[in-house]
Amino acid sequence: MFGDPLFTDGVDWSDLGIMGIKVLAVFVFLLVATMFMVWFERKVNADMTNRIGPDVAGPWGILQTFADGVKFFFKEDVKPAQADPLIFRLAPYLSAVTAFLAFSIVPLGGVFDSSRENPGVVTILGHETYLQVADPPMGILLLLAVSSIAVYGIMLAGWSSGSKYPLLGSVRASAQAISYEAALGMSVVAVVMLAGTLSTHGIVEGQIGSLRSWYVLSTGFVPFVVFLIAATAELNRPPFDLVEAEQELVGGFHTEYSSIRFALFFLAEFMNVITMSAIMVTLFFGGPAGPIFFGLEWLFPTLWFFAKVLVFLFMFVWFRATLPRLRYDQLMDLGWKVLIPVSLGWLLIRSGILLRAEGDISAVTLIVVASVLTVVCLGLLFAAYAAGDRAFAEEAENERDRTGAKG
Amino acid sequence: MTLAHEAVSSETIETPAEVAARLNASGATLRLSEAEAVTYDEGRDVDDERMIINMGPQHPSTHGVLRLMMELRGETVERTKPVIGYLHTGMEKTAEGLTYLQGPTNVTRMDYAAPLFSELAFSLAVEELLDVEIPERATWIRMLMTELNRMSSHLLFLATNGMDLGAVGMMLYGWKEREEVLRFFEKVTGLRMNHNYIRPGGVAADLPDGWEDGLVAFLDQLPKRLEEFDTLMTGQPIWRDRTQGIGVITTEEAVALGATGPILRSTGFGWDLRRDEPYLAYDEVEFDVIVGTYGDTFDRYAIRLNEIRESMRIVRQCIEKMPPGDYRVQDSKVTPPPRGRIDESMEALIHHFKIFTEGYKVPEGEVYAKVESPRGELGCYIVSDGGPSPLRMHIRGPSFVNLQTLPHLMKGGLIADAVAVVSSVDPIMGEVDR
Question: Is the ipTM, as predicted for this complex, more than 0.85?
Answer without folding.
Answer: no
